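Ticket #4471: structure output looks truncated?

Reporter: J.K.
Steps to reproduce: submitted the chain below (377 residues) through the standard prediction queue, then opened the result file.
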Amino acid sequence: MKVKKPDVELSAPLGVKHKGLSNTGIMLVITIGLFILLYAISAVMFRDNNFAKFSVFFNFFNTKAYLLALSLGLTVVMITGSIDISVGGVTGLISMVIAAMLTKHGINAVWTIPVSLGIGLAFGLTQGFLVAYMDIQPFIVTLSGMFFARGMISVISITSVPISNALFMKWSDAKLYIPFLYNESRRGVRDVAYLTPAAVITLIVLAILIVLLKYTRFGRSFYAVGGSKQSALLMGIDAQKVKFNAHVLCGLLAGIGGFCFTLFAPSGNPGNGLRYEIDAISSSIIGGTMLSGGVGLPIGTFFGVMINGLVARVVPLLGLIDAAWPSIITSAFLFVFIVLQSVLAIAGKTGGTGRLLPDWLRFRNRETRTAQCRQKI
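Returned output as attached by the reporter:
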């Protein structure tokens, strides 16, 4: 006669986790869900302002394309457990250098591209060497880089330098229309959505980075070092080289971001790039990148930037004219996501979010309570 086995044996053995969303997946779902929710609410509240039009939606990204490049750079270094707060200063320096090149020296606009990338790489190489091989705290190194960049801006010019170069302005004013995405008015006028050159550039960068981080050994090594440096060393990964590469890539992306920003705002100004590093860090964290390292996805950073752009668009419509309000609201989101990251990190170590609660608040089934009572007896 067969004896029916207890149901408890059908469950997974202790120490074996059920398949489900990882911390990366959870953060990505929350970020995308938050953006969809905020956009849906805004479209209903501000339908009189044509908020739901395709062109308005794409303008969220067109106006923040440069921020995506900067945020992707922060995502890369934060995945390795490092940080770079010089990207805002680098952006401002590049815009001022481009303005001086075109306006004061009459240099061909084509040269602005390699110069922008060169400035970004110079910062990335220098800071990466100091962080990875000299073992200096990344916050201190990149803070010095930020001060250096902002000081160089004032050395070049203490006043605004507008750009009037014909070729550069042609790049700045260009639009790539998307013919199948349009809204038609009652008079038959079509409002077609479009992408700016800066938006196209950063979308290409986003696609490349997604492939690089997911499908190449070069990209996966970033996660290995950020997740556990000791484990990465045991796997034969050169942690110093990986951190160096991360900072170099961040510098390159800062160069791209600085060029894209100048396309968006064609002028050199001492205030350009001010506090952009905070926007980049917040967009990356809201997008699911963890400060502790080892977790982060470029596509999540994209939605973090979209949330940033959405907030910047919605706040004035709410009647909050003060320029500080978008930063205040974004900071609130940042605070919530940092707390959420901490909760997920602790839950991963303790075996579930339920263990974060006091003993008397945890939910237990009857068998578990009975077993605990027997142990006490």
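Triage note (M.O.): checked the attachment and the full token line is present. The first strand starts at residue 161 and ends at 162.
Status: closed, working as intended.
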